[in-house]
Every structure is written in structure tokens, then in C-alpha cells.
């Protein structure tokens, strides 16, 4: 195995395992809530749409953090690496508070964007009234996990996910169904279990960063320091990354709004399909995230010939991971669906959605990994944003809208339109990455030289 693949494996494996455990919590939620019926499952799906936007915003902050901090870490500049982390954490905390405030002030208006079904909206409100208090904990934890990733400390994320898994799933079993003498709270129990799990994982992550990590040596006093020039850098180079993930979150929200008007069956089906897809796609996302760290560090060290060699090897790896993930998703879908106690119509539609995703994941593995794991991490920060905006708002959303509301196509056709960019963007990715015009060192001293 080439040295690069070993390095990718050492980074990607813990991140993939972390994601498997994280998505296992989501799958357990999905299965347990699914036993309450399509209405409850649809309500949770709708309530989580705002969480998805926050998730993408925090993911964008983490990605911007990794791109900039990895380049500084590649040139052995610990002070600026640490400063980038504190900047990202402050904005992450602010985002969590902003979303919490919005859901406290305008809960029904927000839910009304995603569904016009009053019964689904009522179920969603029951879930949202509790889950919104997880937003701040989630944002802080994820930024800290990303900070450890940029210095190749990825095991803590895995350990944290294991702890969260047992806390969340155990409390789900107790609070949703009323086991061990607890009241049966239904979907409110699922939300409460998630909140408690978030309240457990955040102090653990803070303790690790403060007392265990020896790379960044992050201390509370560092958050009081002012880094005006690095803040400008973070916005100059990080803003397109953050904005891209925000727009992607909005895209997912709009997709949810389109599907939300196709009925409770479609909502429940896509909830099942998306959860299983997320479980299987961990290898794809782990490989892309590991590639971003390595590419960023290699650019920071100015090893450009080595970077070009890495690029060719990584493209082969991305395709292999995609094909294997697609085959796995297709093979296990029937088995997983047997665990759901839902109507035959819902299970048939979920299976159809999963067939679509088993094809689309091959494209996702190549284009997403190339564009975010190589091109964006290598310094071409605006290209991915512009490319996503073009495909999402000129192809995906218009075609899905027309299919759903003009031609009244079957929900599976609408779903195919919503996922079509995952294949189409491969053509752009293969051309862009092999031109090597995306390599740019973003660190401060290099740009001054």
C-alpha cells in the first residue's frame, strides 16, 4: 500500500468510525421514532431541517478551520494554528446562540417553511421545543473536534462518539417508550435523550483540549487574545467555504420543503433513506476529510511536486470508495428496511430512494472528495462555492420544482432531480483537479513574501 494510502487510513478510519457511531445514533432514533408511526417520523424529519442548516454552517466553520489551520500546522506555526481555532470557536458559539434564539422566537414560522401539514407541524414542534437547546453544545463540540483533526488528533472524536452513542441510545430506549419506570415521552423523549448526550459530550471535549492535548496547548486565555489580521484572513479565505456550506444547508432545507409537500409517506421514506445513506457514506466523508488535512499540510510545507502525485493517487481511491459504498448500500437496504414497522407503501418508496442513492454515492465519492478534499483544501476556495451555486440553483432546485409541482411526477423522480448534481459535477471535478491551477498557499507569511 502506498505511503499516502496508509496515512489516509490512519486519519480516515477513526473519523469514519466516529461517523458510523454518530449516524448509528441517528439510525436508532429513526427506528425507535419510526415505531411510533409515519406522522412522528415526519415530524422529527421536519424539525431537524433547521438543525441541518446549523450543521452545515458549523461544518463550514470546521472546514475553513481545517484549510487554514492545516496549512499553518504544515509549516510548524503553532501560534497561528491556535489563533485560527479560537476564531472559529467564537463564531461557532455565536451561530448556536443565533439558531437557538430564532427557534425560541419564531418556531411555527420556521416549521411552516418545511411543511404545510398541520399534524406534522404539531409533531415537529414537540420535538423542536427540546432539540433547539442542543444547538450551542453541538456547535462548540464540533469546532473543537475539527481543531484536533487539523493537528492529526482524530481519536478523541471516536471516543466521544462512543460515549454519546451509549448515552443517547440508552436514554432513547428509556424515554421514548417509558422503560425502567420513566414516563413514555415519544418524540419528546428522543429529543431529551439527544440534549442530555450533547450536555455530556461538550465538557468531555473541553477537558480533552484543555488538559490532555499537547499539540495546540489551547488555554482559556487564548480566547481573550485579538487577532485582527487572522480574523481578516479567516473571512477572506474561510468565508467562501463557510458560505458554500451554508448555501448547501439551505439547499437541503429547500429540498426538504419540496419533499415535505409530497405527503407524509414521502417524508418518512426520505428520512429512512437519508439515515441509511449517511451510515454507509462515512467512508466517503472520512476519506475526503483526511485528504483535506493532508493536502492542506502539503501545501503549507510547499511540497508541490509531492502534492501532484498525491492528487493522482487520491482520485483512484475516491472512485474505489464510491463503488464499494454504492454496492454496500444496495445490498443491505432490504435487510435494514425489515426493522421498520411502517406501511408497505412507505417501505417500497424508501427502497426506491435507496436505489437512487446507491448510484449517486459513486458520484458523490469522486466529485465531493475531489472538490473539497483536494481543490478547496489546496487553496481554490471560491471555485467550489461557485460550482455548487450553479448546479444547485440552476439545475437541481428548478428541475425538482418543475417535476413536483408542474408535471406532478412520482416522488422518486423528484428525488432523482434533487440528487442529479452528484453525477453531473464529476465532469467538472475531473477537469479542474487535473489542471493543478488550484494550488495556493494561504498562510500569512508566504503571502507577504
How would you describe what is shown here?
The protein has one domain. Helices cover 83% and strands 0% of the residues. It is built from 17 helices and no strands. The chain has helices spanning 3-34, 38-74, 78-105, 107-114, 118-131, 135-149, 155-177, 187-212, 228-260, 264-280, 282-300, 304-337, 344-376, 381-406, 411-419, 421-433, 444-448. The radius of gyration is 21 Å and the shape is globular. The relative contact order is 0.13. The mean pLDDT is 87.
Could you name the key traits of this structure?
449 residues, mainly alpha, 17 helices
Radius of gyration: 21 Å
In total, the number of domains comes to 1
What structural category do the secondary elements indicate?
A: mainly alpha
Shape: globular
Arithmetic mean pLDDT = 87
